[in-house]
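Example record

The entry below shows one chain as it appears in the dataset: sequence first, then structure tokens.
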Amino acid sequence: MGNQQFKTSTFSLSIPTVYSDIQIAWETIRATHEQPDDDYLSFAIVGLVPVVSFDRFSQEELFLRYWESSLSQEKIKEIITDKIVSIQDLISNVRLLRSTDGIFYYLAIVEINNDFCYTFKADCKIEHRDFYEPLFEEIWQSLTYFGDTQDAFDRLPSFLRTLYNNKESSNDVTMENEIPQN
């Protein structure tokens, strides 16, 4: 199985070719794959996220706040393992878990500075874990970050900046004049 390279203005990923539907939106890359004869899409999503976006969660450590934001405690059936991997010489916390509805989740986060982190959330049916888990590992460990994260964040549509900064908007959400021009 080969790989495809995708990048935003601040990071790049190598994604196995089994993922045929790739979407890049601002500073997020999303890949999907559907097993033959199965109606469940496997997702793998990596994105640049301001650290402040996790401030509303109660845990002290950033990675614990990310876990809290990712899946409600009621949906977690089993935490399979927590581990640490290296992404460009930085510590990345990884959590593998099984949900009550039979979904395997691979969650990961790496804090690249005091203001920004990259998050990874991937899933598949638990019975397909042996197939997908190595692909999830490969995608996450291929993360290469570069570029000016603050500049990239400043170029996001205002409704996304508001959402990430946990602020309530006094305006209705509008995308008019918000799409970046390439």
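Notes for this example: The CA atoms of residues 38 and 125 lie 10 Å apart. Helices lie at 62-70, 129-141, 149-154, 158-164.
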